[in-house]
Specification:
The structure holds 2 protein chains of 2 kinds. Chain A has 12 helices and no strands. Chain A has helices at 2-21, 24-51, 60-82, 84-93, 98-102, 107-114, 121-138, 145-175, 179-188, 201-210, 218-226, 230-257. The longest helix of chain A has 31 residues, at 145-175. Chain A is globular and about 55 Å long. In chain B, 79% of the residues lie in helices and 1% in strands. Chain B is built from 12 helices and 2 strands. Chain B has helices at 2-22, 24-52, 62-79, 83-93, 96-100, 106-137, 144-170, 172-175, 179-192, 204-211, 220-226, 231-267; strands at 56-57, 60-61. In chain B, strands 1-2 form a two-stranded antiparallel sheet. In chain B, a hairpin with a 2-residue loop joins strand 1 and strand 2. The chains are: A mainly alpha, B mainly alpha.
Amino acid sequence: MAFRIFRMAAKHFTLTLSEQMAYKGDFLIKLFAGAAADFVGPLVAILIYAATPGIPGWAFEEFLLFQGTLILVFSLGKFMALDFPGYVLGAIWEGDFDKYLLRPYDSLKQLLARSLNPEALIEVLLGAVIIIYSFGKLGLTMLSLNFAYYLLLIAAAVAVQQAAMIAISAMAFLVIKSDALVNFWHKFTDFARYPISVYSPGLKFFLTFVVPVAVSASYPSEILLRGASPGTMAALILPVVLFYAAAIGIWRLGIRNYTSAGG
Amino acid sequence: MAAAAFQQYLGQMRAGARIALSYHFDFVVGILTTPLALVIYYFLWKSIYAFSGATVIQGFTFNELISYYVLSMIVGFLTWSEADKWIERGVRQGSLTRDLVKPMSFLGQWLGFEVGTNLMNIVFQIIPVFFIGILAFGLEPAPAHRIAAFAASIILAFLLYYGLTFLNGLGAFWLQKITGLRRVKRVLIGFLGGSFIPLSFFPPALQTISHFLPFEYIRFVPINIYLGRYGTAGMLVQLGIQAAWIAALYALIAVVGRAAIRKYARSG
């Protein structure tokens, strides 16, 4: 079953790429614009560190690692889930959603497979380049437990992005018009653009345990640089698991409320 | 004749306002979203100022910098335009012909529409942000003459932003899809306009180059007029530069617009 979903995802990926390549000029400009938009974060960091001692607890190269990690996580999230609400909302509005329910596959997996976004891959590459550059500057190694923790937290961070898109899309079954919530989520994730240490204790708690966006770049970078105990790792991963489970729960509730095109 | 033309543009404004009103759920979400960015900048810069021990960084005290971000949002809401999106849609869906045969200029139609949308923004977003800025982030009301110059500068900034957006939209006549161009426009105006960080933080050479580009006149200049950084003569100079940019841009639009419509008419 899992293999079929992967095959479906690969097929949809190829089709989406072909669709986008039908407008080659726009596709190439989009790739450039996406990378340029991502590069604004590191540019602002350069300007801040040129004019001030920077963010407490973060040397410039460390903050660059933070920015690279953020770009990687957000672009992976974009690759795997950003288009998901668009497909779900489109299917509901056009009365097309029934076909996903009638097929012998889980509707959520089908739609996730449908919504891979090829243009995000250039941004994944940009994030990886910045991370590799920071690794060299900071003398970090990939052969360490900290690096394994780092990868685990990146996976968790991408799961948070995907969970948010699933939950927001499911809201479309309940309130129909949920695209404004996608905007809200993007603005909310701006909290992840700076280290968690700059926020107040209440916000730190909220961003770590309630809506765990601090796992996007702050904790992975900090743990890669300074290490963590298994207990700390468990305390960071558990909220993500609960967040993902809540999103799936909202999706299932939404599907139960779905009244089809004639409803 | 003039009254009839005014009525037509007023109709476009009403349409823009109605469309904006129909997105009331987005407005509610927008009001909830807006303070989030301010909270982020507040904590970020609070920690940087505390860490550096300086009271002034690149000419900004902490309160002035936070006021800068509040004003940046207000200017952003007032100058917003998505004319490029509507033009792209018109080109791709074929509804552009209907717009072109209307007895009003193509440029003016969307201008009227966007003015209507932004007037709604005043009610739903700018007034709340202004009060949030004063009550929670220490934004100080400016004296009347600066408010007047700020208002004039915002009108010019809107015309400049609209002009750039419209010009960008004309790209759809050649490319059909301009999602990428629209994103480039947002990044350029955002970064070189000073939305993410004031241009005073840029290296001197880049600041000099920026004076010769239109972007800082869309956001950085109106904000600094409000903050009183130019003096009376300086304010007038900045308003003059904004007006000159508008004249140059709209002359360019006239040339590109004619070529775009010729292309559209040829390809049918």
